[in-house]
What does this fold into?
Amino acid sequence: MARVAIVFTGGTISMGFDPVAGGNVPTLDGAAILAGTPSLESLAEVVPVDHGMTPASHFTFDDVLGLGRVVQAALDDAAIDGVVVVQGTDTIEETSFAWDLMLRSPKPVVVTGAMRAPHEDGFDGASNLRDAVAAAVSPALRDAGVVVTLAGTLEPADDVTKVHTTAFTTFGSPNGGTLGRVVDGQVALERPRGPRRRLVAGEGAGRVHLLTAGIGSDGGLLDAAVAAGADGIVVAATGAGNTSPGWLAAAERAMAAGVVVALASRCPGGAVSTAYAFPGGGATWVRAGAIRAGTLCAIKARVALALGIGAGLSRDALAALLADPTPPSDGPTG
It folds into this structure.
């Protein structure tokens, strides 16, 4: 029978109600979560790895890099066929993408959690965990990188986005669409994963700030980020990468000071572009030296930029990392 390592880190799936605190707090370790998840033994032999009970909103880049090393060690074990990471959903679109960049193995890595705590009506953690284990042993997901599964769908780590605070079906992939589904313990793929970004991660991450442009804002926070010692800044611009002229002027000052600036969109899907050339339009940002984030949403662009800076990448290498990867060429035709 296949063997799956399950790395437990906490999250809603681990929480119970604390009347003193007045809400849910981490309570259950891996053994307790497994005890509440029947029928796993029919899918795989489980190897639990307890790694604390940390709310996902508390994770630091050091935590994410450390967990990545734990997952890589499990993947390097010849007796392990796949890995599941159990965590809170608050930052799952960031952590899964970070691991997708840094992990090296054809074995499936599946990240899951829950939208309801075990004591709440509609608790979904047990079914999500069963689906994750089924996905982690599926040959269909070999070489597919890191995927996220909740509510039965399989989402690629570089696109997965949380679109609702409490809905069971909160996760989707606005650019490429869902990879597939887990139905009755079986993986059914709807499309291939496609080319991925890859990074040999360093021991740390750069200090990167994420700033969102909007009506009436002038880029003053960008100046403040530079003054606070930022290594990099991601600007979540409006639409396809447009801001007011004041934002661009502040970005030019930042780049002149040696700070790397990346341009993303505050939209959950779609790419930044050079279609607009008015002052503050995407074309003027690119001409000024900002890095385009492709279809990466702003929060994922921050992850890539921070880890890339931490790995010591040059500006050109950072630009290549944030750009959308292209499928390998089949050679000349005609």
